[in-house]
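Hi all, posting the design record for the shared folder.

TITLE: backbone redesign
STEP: 1 of 1
STRUCTURE INPUT:
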């Protein structure tokens, strides 16, 4: 098995297994999130599966002064190396209040 850093230095692409993940995202208004997630996942060489919008729900406590959030869930298929990059991109996005990425 070639370590990731060594593979990057050699310029070779290591074949990682594609794992299934369940991503749940809480957003302020829910507009444009579907396109952003699909764009990010495709850039990370993953596949977007079923998307479920659970609607606007009241939060138990305010998150960045928001009392309500739109809950959206996706089934994703990602390479193992892309999970950390996806997490970083979700944290940076100001429209996303919280996210939960769980391996299925």
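Okay, here is what came back for every position:
SEQUENCE:
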């Amino acid at each position: 098995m070639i370590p990731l850093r060594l593979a990057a230095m050699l310029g070779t692409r290591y074949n990682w297994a594609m794992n299934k993940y369940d991503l749940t995202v809480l957003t302020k208004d829910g507009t444009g999130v579907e396109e952003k997630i699909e764009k990010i996942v495709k850039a990370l060489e993953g596949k977007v599966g079923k998307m479920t919008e659970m609607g606007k729900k009241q939060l138990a406590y305010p998150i960045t002064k928001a009392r309500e959030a739109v809950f959206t869930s996706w089934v994703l298929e990602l390479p193992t190396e892309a999970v950390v990059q996806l997490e970083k991109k979700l944290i940076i996005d100001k429209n996303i209040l919280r996210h939960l990425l769980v391996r299925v």
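COMMENT: Helices lie at 4-10, 33-43, 82-92.
Let me know if anyone wants the other runs.
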